[in-house]
């Protein structure tokens, strides 16, 4: 390894001692080397001063130079011109010397006392005696409190808007009145008025005034005038306020400065409220102790706790974040260490969620915004050990919460627990920058903290610190080295790109492997320079290997890890295990398991099974029950599970090739593991008082037995022996386990352990933190084994019903949990999925799948189908097979969809029209029987819809890579790609709008299909399934999708071509959907200001719909109905302007009659229109004949209704002129278009037959009409 980059530079010549002889040697060597000096002295040549011109001389003469305000040396001296100054002769005197001034007798001056002056000089006393102390009196007046000057004008009123002269005069008048009123009141009255004002005014306004006054350096405190002031007892104050006794011998201590001794007084009583001038009355800054605990502001804490300091609130114990940031940059070493250590403890506590209920704002996010990352990075560059060690701890606590790694380690042996999260934030937004390299560190930090650490060269700094800590004692450096590993592991979890970037940092990787994973194991008694940190190094390698087979292969072959791991494995098994050995061996099994799943080191491990592994297992079984042994067995059986999966996949892939025969490991190597695993599982049935993790051991055993049965069934190996093994598992382990009391207690906790989102996860630093861990790992393993047993022995589901009897008892908590999860999955249309919720998804699917097998002749309740539908948009990427099996269960159970009870199917009794004629001259029947027939035909297409959705959503098994989830559900298929063990922590597999298939892609032209028949079939398939869901009132539509999206997805059919909507089959569904929406009152509840999910804003969508109608609608009645829905008065005026004003040509084609509207008319007429622009346009289109009763009867009735309401509205006095203008214009056309005139004047109300008019106009309207026409 190149050591030049690891150490600080040393002197180039000689040794490092600095005695005189060596310094002379340095000098001699330097002279011999003939090196050029690093700095040279260059003398500047003298520059002759140029002669100045006459104009410049004049400028110098006229310039006024103040030599007291400049230090610049003038280039020449210019004499003052005194030619015009008159010459005065000196006055003749008689004496040779000036007369001396007489100050009187000094004894007389001793008796004189100058008022308000403690120790006056002799000169001052003489001036006072002679009455010449006017300047002193003025100075004394200036030293008096300037409160009168402060109150010379108002500090709140500015007079803005009153003019410069008038405003100043009014302000002075108001101020004088206030001062006079205050002078007329005593102190008690003033305080009473102050309390009244404080209670009546808004606290925010009071805080604003105080903050403004504080910034100006002035207070709103009234001080009584000089006439009411009381003399201060200075002597008494001296006797009580002086905290120490003075001695006359002390130099300069004859005068005590009390203001400098304020800090030595007793602290005020702690208060829950801050000072009255606080700018934030809703909350106070949080204070913490050195361990990161939140401090109470009212707690009486002794000053000996060292939590009080001289800040703004000396009585409050603890430190605020602002104060800790300030101390972390202190010049005092101890203050910097304490500040960073306290910040590290606060961050650690924040990730556990202890502050969530007490703080108003998320603490981690605020720390990141305040720049704590830069603060830590600067501290890591220090050369002082105490500083960089605590900085490393602070960074590790910030980016790598301990709870994340603890829970991940507890779920890694669960079914589907092989997946580990990629904690990648959202993609970095470049903005106006061209590339990521153009962004500043702050801009990158705001979006991705880990990438910012790479930018800061944290890897190079880490290897330098690791190398530098070699010289430190192991007890001192161990914690810091562990923290560095925590940082590196979290950075590796970021993404595959970051993992490769760490691996390519060769100096770091070489150092870690050589120092922490040596070729031969080091016994504990021999010690290590860093302590025994092999588990951390193995875990770091495991996280790197999770990112793909390429990285795994390079990691193994660059450092020959197979030899190193084999040596450590054999050495650990041949000696008595300590706690350190136990942890290292568990991590070694975990790393080897990942290598095997990535297709590496399976042969090497298989060669160790008969000679090393099986004897070790037998020894462990003999020592059971034991906590350390059980932890090792959990990881070892998980390793067996991975080995079974690898061999099963390898044999299936190379079944017909010679490579499979030449493989060093085959099924015979693992056939003997079955008895070992079953024996271990039977040991878990033994009740013991020793505290061991039986659930983990049972979970991994159930999962491994399932994989063994799946592999033997798929490979058709010893099929006659398979039923015997099933019976052996069932009788010896499964049935006794189901009868145990511990299982019943475990099931009771299911309702309380649903996963939640981490509270301290930020945009640039996602986390997984959970407050607790659920028991779904064991339940998933139990359901998985039960499902495999049911597949092998077909008679068991109807006879035994293991799961129904266990989980669906009278007081079952599982049903409560299912209802709770259904509400959770459908609670929000855009829901973030917690990472650990994936295990609940697996549980729910397997639970419903087994209930479906055990139901016999009974129908499965609808809630289980709803929970499966709600699961689909929440599945994380990687669960393709789970989505496929869910679709299969939903689409192929026709009995559920054929149930037509009143509570599930939509009401079909609200149909008013029997038929509807389209633009293609086809007639559509709207009877209830026709809609029922549509529903039944859609159900008949469900099997084909399964294939359709499976293909378009890319969950077909032939289109995805093999993953662990597939194997855990008993499915294998040939694939050239290896297993993928990393998926994004929040990316879901399906979009929330998946029921609509590819419609959204067609709307946005992302997908184009040339074949017309294929295109129509695709649209029909989506309409069929969505119609089934609408008729069944499915929660997947009602709760997860907003109403705007449901309407827009169907109305968007009109955007797919000029004649698509004219197809009879599609038109049937469009009519049926419109009636469904009407019955659900959806057409009156659209959120028109929201977005159409997965598309665009509703306004943009409607504008596109209007353009399409204008281009190729042919005046279609059904299209017109969809277009009219957003024109109801309850929606935004901008939508009506789109049709009436901006696309006025559309009005020519909207020729609907009132009885052709397929939903209620009321919302087109109420409330009355109040927008003047559109009212003018109503009058314009009516008067110029654009809208005519015979051509556009419905639009005509709308315009007449709102225009009549505006004209006869007597409450709009400010619009009287416009009403008069329009009415006179209408009166002028009465001779040419009497029908329009009469209906505008005599209009009464609307109906489906047309406008209803007054036979005789009411008198109040007659009088108002006469007033308008005057």
In this structure, how is the largest beta sheet organized?
A: 2 strands, parallel
How many E-type strands? Answer: 6
What count of helical segments does DSSP give? 59
The overall pLDDT, averaged over residues, is: 79
Beta content comes to under 5%
Would you give an account of this structure?
The chain is mostly helical and 1270 residues long. Among the domains are: 287-396, no CATH class; 991-1164, no CATH class; 1170-1269, no CATH class. The protein has 59 helices and six strands. The strands form three sheets. The chain has a two-stranded parallel ribbon with strand order 1-4. The chain has a two-stranded antiparallel ribbon with strand order 2-3. A two-stranded antiparallel ribbon has the order 5-6. A hairpin with a 5-residue loop joins strand 2 and strand 3 (923-925). Helix 28 runs parallel beside helix 32 and helix 56 packs across helix 58. The longest helix has 27 residues, at 627-653.
Summarize the structure.
This protein has 1270 residues and is mainly alpha-helical.
Write the layout of secondary structure elements.
Blueprint: H1 20-33, H2 54-62, H3 106-110, H4 122-129, H5 134-143, H6 147-150, H7 164-183, H8 187-200, H9 203-215, H10 234-241, H11 321-327, H12 333-351, H13 363-370, H14 372-380, H15 385-399, H16 402-411, E1 420-422, H17 441-447, H18 449-455, H19 458-468, H20 474-492, H21 496-503, H22 506-516, H23 534-545, H24 549-559, H25 561-573, H26 579-597, H27 602-622, H28 627-653, H29 658-661, H30 667-670, H31 673-683, H32 694-714, H33 722-739, H34 741-748, H35 776-792, H36 796-799, H37 802-807, H38 813-825, H39 838-854, H40 862-871, H41 880-891, H42 894-897, E2 915-917, E3 923-925, H43 928-940, H44 942-952, H45 964-968, E4 982-984, H46 999-1003, H47 1012-1031, H48 1035-1038, H49 1043-1051, H50 1064-1079, H51 1098-1112, H52 1117-1124, H53 1133-1142, H54 1162-1165, H55 1172-1183, H56 1193-1207, H57 1216-1228, H58 1234-1242, E5 1243-1245, E6 1252-1253, H59 1259-1269
Helix pairs in contact: 11-12, 12-15, 14-15, 15-20, 17-18, 20-23, 23-26, 25-26, 25-27, 26-28, 27-28, 27-31, 28-32, 31-32, 32-33, 32-35, 35-39, 38-40, 39-40, 41-44, 43-47, 47-50, 55-56, 56-58, 57-59
């Amino acid at each position: 390894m190149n050591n030049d980059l690891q150490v600080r530079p040393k002197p180039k010549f000689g040794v490092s001692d600095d005695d005189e002889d060596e310094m002379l040697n340095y000098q001699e060597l330097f002279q011999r080397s003939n090196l050029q000096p690093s700095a040279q002295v260059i003398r500047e040549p003298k520059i002759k001063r140029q002669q100045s011109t006459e104009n410049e001389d004049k400028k110098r003469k006229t310039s006024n130079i103040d030599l007291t305000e400049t230090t610049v040396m003038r280039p020449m001296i210019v004499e003052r011109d005194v030619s015009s100054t008159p010459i005065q002769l000196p006055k003749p005197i008689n004496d040779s010397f000036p007369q001396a001034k007489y100050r009187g007798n000094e004894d007389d001056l001793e008796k004189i006392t100058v008022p308000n002056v403690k120790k006056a000089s002799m000169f001052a006393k003489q001036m006072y005696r002679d009455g010449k102390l006017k300047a002193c009196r003025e100075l004394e007046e200036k030293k008096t409190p300037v409160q009168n000057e402060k109150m010379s004008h108002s500090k709140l009123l500015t007079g803005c808007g009153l003019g410069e002269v008038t405003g100043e005069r009014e302000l002075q008048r108001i101020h004088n009145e206030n001062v006079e009123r205050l002078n007329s009141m005593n102190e008690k009255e003033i305080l009473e008025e102050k309390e009244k004002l404080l209670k009546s005014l808004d606290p925010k306004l009071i805080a604003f005034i105080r903050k403004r006054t504080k910034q100006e350096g002035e207070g709103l405190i009234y001080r009584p005038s000089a006439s009411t002031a009381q003399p201060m007892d200075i002597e008494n104050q001296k006797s009580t306020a002086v905290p120490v006794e003075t001695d006359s011998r002390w130099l300069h201590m004859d005068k005590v400065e009390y203001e400098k001794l304020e800090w030595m007084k007793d602290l005020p009583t702690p208060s829950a409220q801050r000072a009255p001038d606080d700018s934030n009355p809703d909350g106070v800054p949080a204070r913490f102790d050195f361990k990161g605990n939140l401090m109470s502001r009212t707690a009486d804490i002794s000053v000996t706790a060292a939590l009080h300091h001289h800040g703004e609130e000396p009585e409050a114990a603890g430190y605020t974040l602002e104060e800790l940031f300030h101390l972390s940059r202190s010049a005092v070493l101890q203050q910097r260490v304490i500040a960073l250590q306290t910040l590290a403890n606060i961050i650690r506590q924040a990730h556990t969620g202890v502050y969530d209920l007490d703080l108003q704002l998320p603490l981690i996010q605020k720390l990141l915004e305040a720049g704590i990352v830069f603060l830590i990075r600067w501290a890591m560059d220090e050369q002082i050990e105490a500083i960089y060690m605590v900085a490393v701890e602070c960074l590790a606590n910030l980016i790598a919460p301990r709870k994340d790694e603890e829970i991940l380690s507890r779920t890694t042996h669960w079914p589907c627990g092989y997946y580990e999260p990629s904690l990648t934030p959202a993609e970095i937004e470049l903005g106006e920058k061209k590339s990521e390299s153009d962004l500043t560190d702050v801009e990158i930090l705001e979006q991705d903290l880990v990438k910012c650490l790479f930018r800061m060269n944290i890897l190079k700094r880490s290897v330098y610190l690791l190398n530098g800590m070699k010289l430190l004692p192991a007890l001192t450096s161990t914690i810091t080295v562990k923290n560095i590993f925590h940082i590196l592991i979290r950075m590796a979890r970021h993404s595959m790109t970051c993992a490769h970037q760490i691996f390519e940092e060769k100096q770091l990787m070489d150092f870690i492997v050589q120092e922490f994973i040596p070729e031969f194991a080091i016994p504990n008694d021999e010690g290590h320079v860093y302590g025994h940190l092999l588990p951390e190094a193995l875990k770091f390698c495991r996280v790197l290997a999770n990112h793909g087979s390429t990285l795994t292969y390079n990691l193994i072959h660059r450092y020959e890890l197979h030899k190193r791991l084999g040596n450590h494995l054999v050495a650990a098994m041949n000696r008595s295990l300590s706690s350190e050995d136990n942890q290292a061996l568990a991590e070694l099994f975990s790393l080897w398991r990942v290598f095997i799943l990535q297709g590496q080191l399976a042969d090497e491990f298989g060669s160790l099974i008969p000679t090393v592994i099986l004897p070790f297992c037998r020894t462990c079984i003999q020592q059971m029950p034991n906590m350390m042994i059980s932890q090792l067995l959990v990881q070892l059986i998980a390793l067996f599970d991975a080995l079974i999966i690898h061999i099963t996949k390898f044999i299936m892939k190379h079944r017909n090739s010679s490579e499979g025969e030449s493989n060093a490991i085959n099924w015979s190597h693992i056939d003997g593991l079955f008895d070992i695993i079953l024996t271990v599982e039977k040991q878990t049935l033994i009740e013991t008082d020793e505290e061991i993790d039986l659930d983990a051991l049972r979970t991994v055993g159930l999962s491994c037995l399932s994989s063994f049965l799946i592999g033997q069934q798929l490979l058709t190996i010893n099929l006659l022996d398979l039923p015997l093994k099933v019976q052996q598992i069932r009788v010896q382990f499964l049935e006794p386990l189901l009868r145990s009391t511990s299982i019943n207690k475990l099931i009771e906790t299911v309702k309380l352990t649903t996963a939640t989102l981490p509270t301290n996860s930020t945009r640039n630093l996602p986390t997984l933190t959970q407050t607790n861990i659920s028991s779904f790992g064991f339940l998933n393993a139990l359901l998985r084994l039960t499902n495999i047993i049911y597949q092998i022995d077909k008679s068991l589901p109807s006879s035994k019903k293991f799961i129904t009897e266990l989980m669906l008892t009278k007081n079952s908590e599982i049903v409560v949990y299912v209802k709770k999860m259904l509400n959770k999955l459908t609670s929000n249309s855009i829901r973030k999925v917690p990472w650990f919720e994936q295990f609940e998804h697996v549980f729910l699917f397997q639970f419903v799948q087994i209930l479906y097998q055990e139901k016999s002749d009974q129908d499965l309740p609808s809630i289980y189908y709803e929970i499966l539908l709600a699961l689909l948009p929440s599945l994380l990427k990687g669960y393709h097979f789970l989505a496929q099996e869910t679709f299969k269960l939903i689409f192929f159970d026709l009995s559920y969809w054929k149930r037509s009870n009143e509570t599930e199917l939509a009401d079909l009794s609200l149909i008013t029209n029997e038929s509807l004629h389209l633009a293609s001259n086809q007639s559509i029947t709207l009877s209830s029987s026709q809609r029922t027939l549509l529903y039944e035909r859609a159900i008949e297409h469900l099997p084909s819809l399964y294939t359709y959705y499976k293909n378009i959503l890319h969950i077909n098994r032939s289109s995805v890579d093999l993953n662990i989830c597939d194997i855990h559900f008993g499915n294998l298929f040939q694939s050239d790609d290896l297993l993928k063990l990393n998926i994004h922590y929040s990316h879901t597999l399906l979009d929330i709008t998946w029921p609509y298939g590819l419609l959204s892609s067609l709307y946005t032209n992302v997908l184009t299909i040339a074949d017309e028949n294929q295109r129509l079939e695709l649209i029909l398939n989506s309409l069929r399934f969505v119609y089934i869901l609408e008729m069944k009132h499915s929660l997947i539509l009602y709760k997860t999708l907003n109403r705007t999206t449901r309407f827009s997805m169907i109305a968007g059919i009109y955007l797919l071509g000029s004649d698509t909507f004219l197809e009879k089959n599609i038109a049937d569904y469009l009519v049926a959907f419109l009636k469904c929406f009407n019955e659900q009152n959806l057409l009156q509840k659209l959120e028109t200001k929201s977005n159409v999910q997965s598309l665009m804003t509703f306004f943009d969508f409607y504008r596109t719909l209007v353009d399409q109608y204008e281009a190729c609608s042919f005046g279609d009645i059904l299209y017109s109905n969809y277009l009219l829905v957003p024109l109801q008065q309850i929606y935004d005026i901008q939508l009506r302007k789109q049709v009436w004003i901006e696309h006025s040509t559309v009005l020519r084609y909207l020729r609907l009659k009132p009885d052709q509207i397929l939903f209620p008319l009321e919302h087109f007429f109420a409330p009355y229109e109040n927008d003047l622009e559109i009212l003018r346009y109503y009058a314009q289109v009516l008067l110029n004949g654009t809208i005519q009763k015979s051509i556009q009867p419905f639009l005509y009735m709308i315009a007449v209704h709102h225009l009549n309401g505006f004209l006869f509205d007597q409450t709009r006095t400010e619009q009287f002129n416009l009403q008069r203008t329009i009415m006179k214009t209408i009166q002028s056309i009465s001779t040419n278009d009497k029908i329009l005139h009469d209906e505008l004047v005599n209009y009464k109300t609307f109906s489906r037959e047309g406008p209803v008019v007054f036979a005789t106009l009411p008198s109040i309207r007659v009088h108002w009409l006469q007033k308008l026409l005057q």
